[in-house]
Amino acid sequence: MFSLDTILLVCFYILIPAIIIYCCYRFPFINKIGPVLLCYIAGITIGNIGILHDSAKTIQDIGSNISIVLGIPLLLFTINVKTWFKLAGKALLSFTLGSVAVIIVVFIGYIIFNHSIPGAWKIAGMLIGVYTGGTPNLAAIKEALQVDSTTFVIVHTYDTVFSMLYIIFLVSIAQRIFLKFLPAFSAVNDEEKNAKTDEDIKLYGDIFTINVFPKLIIALFLSLLAVAISFSISLVFPQQYQTMIVILALTTVAILFSLNPYVHNLKRTFQFGMYLIYIFCTIVGSMVNVDNLIHINIYLLMYVFIAIFGSLLLHGLFCKIFSIDTDTYIITSVAGICSPPFVPVVADALHNKYIILSGITTGVIGYAIGNYLGITLGYVLSTL
Question: Residue ranges of the domains in the chain?
Answer without folding.
Answer: 4-49+61-382
